[in-house]
Amino acid sequence: MPRGEKSAYSDRQKRKAEHIEESEREQGRSEVDAERIAWATVNKQEGGGARKGARKTARKSSRKTAKKAAGRTAKKSTKKTAKKAARKAPRKAAKKTAKKAARKTPRKAARKTAKKAARKTTKKTAKKASKKSATKRARKTPRKAAGKAAGTSNGRTRDS
Q1: Number of alpha carbons in the 13 Å side-chain half-sphere of residue 27
Q2: Which of 2, 118, 130, 133 has the fewest CB atoms within 10 Å, i.e. is most exposed?
Q3: In this structure, are residues 96 and 90 in contact, taking their beta carbons and an 8 Å threshold?
Q4: Which pTM does this prediction carry?
């Protein structure tokens, strides 16, 4: 159908367009704009020409209803999933915390045992080190005393 041809429109639609066009002209629109607005309004409200045999409107309307139905079901399903998520949220949070705690307890125990072992080894090494230093000091003091008594320090005489 070429642009501007109105054969697909019913008489009722044509009358409706004329009425809208008149009201638009009264509001101060130009004739071209008033006609454009009138037919756009008819198309928007009626979905195009409604004359029998001119166009297959049943297919158009069935598409529209299918889209609407799909939209409704999508909205319902999103609402349902939102409700389920709201119910599951506290459960999920509790499960997560339980899992984290389960993971942390062996880690904590391992850390504690490692710390204890480290403390024990540091204590042992500290004890050993203190024993060594004490024995070294014990060895050095008689040598120093003997050196002082003889008047030498580190094998050297004071006179030289």
Answers
A1: 12
A2: 2
A3: no
A4: 0.34
